[in-house]
Amino acid sequence: MGTILTIATSKGGAGKSTLAQCLSANLAQLGYAVTVIDADANATLSDWHANVYEGAPFRCLAECREVEVIDAAQAEAEAGDIVVIDTAGFANLTAASAISVADFILVPCMPDRSSTREAIRTARKIESLGKAARRALPYRVIGTQWRTGGLVESATLDALKAEGLPVMRYALPHLSAFRKASFTGNLPVSGRLGVEADRLIGELTEIGAIPAARVGSAA
Amino acid sequence: MALKAKKISGAELVSQISKATADLPATTPKPAQAVAEPAEPVEQQRGRGRPPKPQREKLEQVNFRCSREFCSLLLDASRDVGMRQFIATLAKKAGYDVPEFDLQPTAKSRVL
């Protein structure tokens, strides 16, 4: 059975869909059988996948109902290697379901105060959902639109660490390539973006969020 | 990672976590309510009376292709100071006349 990776934060525009796009395209390029479930009613990611995306193929479903998203994730995980669930940018029932069914949760956080605040709130929600579901829900906060070494980034890290939140070593860099890809559909899997994505996937594999071996058939 | 939980259906899991989700709305939001118009126009006298901004140095964009390993090396080596300052410092050490503007880009630096 594959791994279910949920991307969630109650902050809108924090980079959830961008992170889902980047991870899915790069994992598909590496040969993983990837399914993305777009659980956001805005359907940004599924629309991009259907109409714009050019790259290694991966499956993409749109499902924003709180019960059905769980069943869809479990069914997709039976057949593939990784199911990535992209949630809506506000605290909602479907995001709670997607968190509860996940093997690992990534909480994107931009370097600003409101993103940090929402990342902390989301982390607390994950912990309470873990208690309700009676199982550990491992998660990490991941920086998005990140400029390593920046003052605001340092302040963000300080605030997250002060709350005891686990933070990924690598972040999603602040690159115009992501915005370009929203129109061209061509997410670079080489160059700086490719190297950064490799590092991110390496870290996720290291901490067990992504299986090291591909168990499913090619997508 | 913890052992995976026994597989349960979506309906069962939603029911199980219902205490923790009692305060949450559904994903599909209600239609937005009309927002009252502000009493006064938002347009303010922004920027009026301020001194003119200083002229910025004209900058050029430099791109180049290299191996993945060298790209990784450059990212690591320039992580603290930034790619521009890193290359400027190397050029200076090699004896080139490097503009101070590129050696010390403090005006826009976000580095601690």
TrEMBL record, chain A:
It comes from the Bacteria. InterPro entries: DNA_Partitioning_ATPase (IPR050678), P-loop_NTPase (IPR027417), VirC1 (IPR009744). It holds the Pfam family VirC1. PANTHER family: COBQ_COBB_MIND_PARA NUCLEOTIDE BINDING DOMAIN-CONTAINING PROTEIN, P-LOOP CONTAINING NUCLEOSIDE TRIPHOSPHATE HYDROLASE. This is Chromosome partitioning ATPase ParA. It comes from Acidocella aminolytica 101 = DSM 11237.
UniProtKB/TrEMBL annotation, chain B:
Residues 22-60 are annotated as: Disordered. Residues 31-44 have a biased composition (Low complexity). It comes from the Bacteria. This is Uncharacterized protein.
